[in-house]
């Protein structure tokens, strides 16, 4: 066996190599100390791994191996550098697909006479990708949420308004019907002369319209409570002999109503509208009034349009077919039976709503039932 230290070779002659023989070659060298400067111990995929090694002497070479968490990496070195200064720097780009875990940097140093090995450990972590959303998506979401909120708010307000309108309408109908039940007389007069052009009694008794009209004309400037004032109209209220007298004036006419109780605001609105319509249709005739009242009979149609006058008019029960065959609910049939019984008891062919309904105990449901009977023409005017 020939050992050549200069050429770093061992020559074994063929004569000593026997088939099946085991060879054990051992060598001993002191591990020369040197330093690895790996300051950062945690790295992420894609980052450049940077560290340095300080050689024990300025000669020889460094060999860099990177061992992954699975223990692989000794097969091929990552880099080999000649030692030309006191500190040698290494750079390694960590792959984007590197597995997560603990890695080892092994640095071997050697020259012709000495050798050494050192290692340092570090970890590679998978970076947490921050959650990001396209700004347009955020804007779209905000827009959609805002649109839904605004739509919901508008819908809620719309429902509340609709519900309020329904309640307001129901209250208006109820109040006006009760007001009509409290209405006894209605008349239209020429404001200038005080003469009546139209009168209507809702009690079955005649009224001294001339007396009432003259009385109102005389006290027009005394003790009157002003209820509403507009450009060319006014509505006033006067309590007289246990009655409430409502007087609505518009330009050249005066609409007078005599009632048992003070009316609701809805009724007063309707009175103002009625006075305006009477003026629009009969204002010129009133201006030229010569005592002939037959030209004013059409006022009754305007009254029907603005007031639930059928609630105070004399009514009959329909006889087009037997009552037993008419499709009525229990509440409707109860009021029909009341009306029929009342007429039989008093030997009359007509009745008034006030005779079958108590004004003080009346509620919106009762008014609705009566209106249904009127719309079905079960109850209809007697004249």
Task: Characterise the protein shown here.
The protein is rod-shaped, with a radius of gyration of 56 Å. The chain is α+β, with helices and mostly antiparallel strands and 383 residues long. Helix content is 32%, strand content 28%. The protein folds into three domains: 22-125, Macroglobulin (MG2) domain (Immunoglobulin-like, Sandwich), CATH 2.60.40; 182-309, 2-Layer Sandwich (Beta-Lactamase), CATH 3.30.450.30; 314-383. The longest helix has 47 residues, at 135-181. A six-stranded antiparallel sheet has the order 12-11-16-15-14-13. The N and C termini lie far apart (149 Å). β11 (183-190) and β12 (196-201) form a beta hairpin. It has seven helices and 18 strands. α3 packs antiparallel against α4.
Task: Summarize it.
This protein is an alpha+beta fold and 383 residues long.
Features:
single chain; 383 residues; alpha+beta; 3 domains; 6-stranded antiparallel sheet; 7 helices
Topology:
Blueprint: E1 2-4, E2 9-11, E3 35-37, E4 42-44, E5 48-54, E6 61-67, E7 79-82, E8 87-93, E9 101-110, E10 115-125, H1 135-181, E11 183-190, E12 196-201, H2 209-218, E13 225-229, E14 233-240, E15 243-250, E16 253-259, H3 265-287, H4 299-306, E17 315-317, H5 330-346, H6 353-356, H7 364-375, E18 379-381
Parallel strand pairs: 4-10
Antiparallel strand pairs: 1-2, 3-5, 5-8, 6-7, 6-9, 9-10, 11-12, 11-16, 13-14, 14-15, 15-16, 17-18
């Amino acid at each position: 066996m020939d050992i050549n230290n200069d050429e770093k070779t061992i020559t074994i002659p063929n004569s000593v190599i026997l088939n099946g023989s085991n060879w054990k070659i051992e060598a001993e060298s002191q591990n020369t100390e040197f330093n690895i400067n790996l300051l950062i111990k945690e790295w992420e995929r894609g980052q450049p791994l940077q560290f340095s090694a300080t050689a024990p002497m300025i000669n020889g070479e460094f060999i860099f191996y990177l061992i992954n968490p699975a223990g692989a990496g000794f097969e091929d070195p990552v880099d080999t550098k000649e030692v030309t200064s006191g500190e040698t720097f290494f750079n390694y780009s960590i792959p984007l697909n590197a597995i997560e875990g603990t890695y080892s940097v092994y640095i071997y140093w050697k020259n012709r006479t000495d050798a050494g090995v050192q290692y340092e450990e570090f970890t590679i972590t998978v970076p947490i990708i921050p959650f990001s959303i396209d700004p347009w998506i955020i804007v779209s979401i905000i827009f959609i949420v805002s649109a839904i909120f605004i739509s919901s708010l508008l819908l809620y307000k719309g429902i509340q308004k609709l519900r309020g309108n329904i309640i307001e309408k129901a209250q208006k109908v109820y109040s006006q019907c009760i007001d009509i039940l409290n209405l006894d007389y209605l008349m239209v007069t020429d404001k200038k002369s005080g003469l009546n052009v139209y009168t209507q009694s809702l009690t079955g008794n005649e009224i001294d319209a001339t007396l009432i009209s003259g009385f109102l004309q005389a006290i027009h400037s005394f003790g009157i409570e002003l209820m509403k004032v507009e450009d060319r109209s006014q509505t006033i209220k006067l309590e007289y002999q246990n009655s409430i007298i409502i007087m609505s004036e518009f330009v050249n006419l005066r609409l007078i109503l005599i009632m048992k109780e003070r009316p609701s605001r809805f009724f007063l609105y309707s009175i103002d509208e009625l006075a305006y319509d009477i003026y629009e249709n009969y204002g010129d005739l009133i201006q030229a009034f010569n005592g002939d009242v037959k030209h004013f009979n059409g006022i009754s149609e305007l009254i029907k349009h603005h007031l639930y006058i059928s609630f105070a008019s004399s009514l009959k029960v329909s006889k087009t077919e037997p009552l037993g065959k008419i499709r009525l609910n229990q509440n409707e049939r109860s009021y029909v039976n009341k009306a029929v019984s009342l007429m039989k008891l008093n030997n009359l062919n007509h009745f008034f709503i006030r005779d079958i309904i108590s004004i003080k105990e009346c509620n919106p449901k009762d008014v609705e039932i009566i209106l249904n009977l009127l719309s079905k023409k079960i109850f209809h005017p007697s004249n």
